[in-house]
Amino acid sequence: MIVGKPKPGDTVTLFVNAAQTVTCAGPARARCGAEMQDAGIQVGVGVAVQGDRIVAVDEDDALRRRFPSAAEVDCDRGVLAPGFVDSHTHTVFGRARYEEHELRATGVPYLEIAKRGGGIHASVRDLRSRSDDELFLLAVPRLQALAAGGVTTVEIKSGYGLSVHDELRTLRVVARLAATGPLNIVATCLGAHEVPLEYRERPDGRARWIDCLTHELYPAVAAEHLARFADVFCEPGVFTVSETRQLLEAARKHGMLPKLHADELHDGGAAVLAAQLGATSADHLAAISPEGIAALAASSTVATLLPATMLFLGTGRQAPARALIEAGAAVAVATDLNPGTSPLQSFPLVLTLAVSQLRLSASEAWIAGTVNGAAALGLAGITGQLREGFRADVAVHAADDFRALPYWFGERLCRVAWAGGRACHVSV
Ligand code: NIG
Ligand code: FE
C-alpha dihedral over 234, 318, 281, 295, to 10 degrees? Predict the structure, then answer.
């Protein structure tokens, strides 16, 4: 575990007086299929935090007897839960892309906008024109908004730099966000988000960009320890399955574990590839094939679904979450916070969409947003559960029942959130 040992002098804080406690307690790995039905709901149970760790989960009275001089956070008959893990975001970007939202409403598809030089390319032009400080200052309130919904761990991808210089700049901004705290941040290198326009214009441009990623960007990212994962937008019209394999195998040689934007809009066999590579997660999957479902179910790759993206794109489709769960896959959900397809900063709304659009039960949605989100970042032994020894990532929601979070859609019920034993949100 990365979390440190509490020092004897660290104050103990008890979270007590909850109406319900969503522990999500169980094995320190992704929950697959029917296992997702048990969110470990308890009554009369609180949590003791010391330093950056949970040191006990027990009945309130037992905690008070064991830690008589502890400080207390009164949950005020609310729901006590692990902090959410937002395992897929593109939080570092410049301006919003209002114009594309309207353009899509007139019938222009997402990939067509990208072909015309908009979409990801518009964000690339914009990011390159901004200073590191600007990018940092634009990202901070986005993280605060996520924390206000009870998120305590956030994955952030690069992918709007698309040059060695600007990808490294982006990942250094992510490192600065991580160092500043209080949220737990995990960095992913998404240099393979697109082929940059200046490369596209050349006949051998694609091959040259792939070569640049492999021989320049990945080694440079590894040299500065800037990313735990590498991701590729594996989609017909973006990167092919064989290019993705080549890229992720190269990234792995530099210590970055594979993740994929897989079968988002069209099935191209990306989910099957994710399983073959032993990717930590395969994300999106709205167009996954039956073979893809079977492959993920038989693998340890987490299927990360992003229901807000499909909603915001207006596709009228969603990933086949029930088929994935029934086949035995582990499903996570995340915001996909980005300026093009999901300008969403509310994790609780993702829980709503998980129930209403993906047809998960409330318990499954909670597991998808906690334990399985953690597993999608290789952190299943660190966070996502209220369990002794886990990182003190804890949230209190003003709700009488855990089902209230997906139910009251669009509401911000989170009153208090602590990440790694430090307050990251207090509602006023
Ligand atoms: O996850 N699909 C690729 N990447 C992002 C969107 C990027 C953008 O449009 O800016 C996604 O949806
Ligand atoms: Fe994404």
Answer: -80
